[in-house]
Sequence to fold (120 residues):
Amino acid sequence: MSTPSAVAAGTQSGSAVRSAPSFETVIRPPVDIFEDADGITLLADVPGVSKEHLNVHVDGNALLLEGEVSSGENVTKYRRSFTLGRELRTDSIEAKVKDGVLTVRIAKRAEDRPRKIAIQ
Fold:
């Protein structure tokens, strides 16, 4: 059994307990936002992040983009959040990543899209 002073000193049962030093950086990635008649498109720069390490999450009218890339002991985390307007369909969000750019497409509700009115 370890003594309290041995545990406090970082040893347990005669072996050293060490954690490797790591450096974590949190970055707010630049995002371009484009709107057209059918919806909006967000383009976020997330270099080095694979799709397995990306998370696109929507909760109510909040959209959260998160990603992580590790290089040895260094960890870079990307995090950006947005408040979505009521005209957007949060039940129909598409996301893909290619060449370090995360593309998120959110459609507008049909009743909020521009439409042409026929003149009689």
Q: What stands out?
A: The chain has one domain: 22-110. Residues 79 and 88 are 21 Å apart (CA to CA).
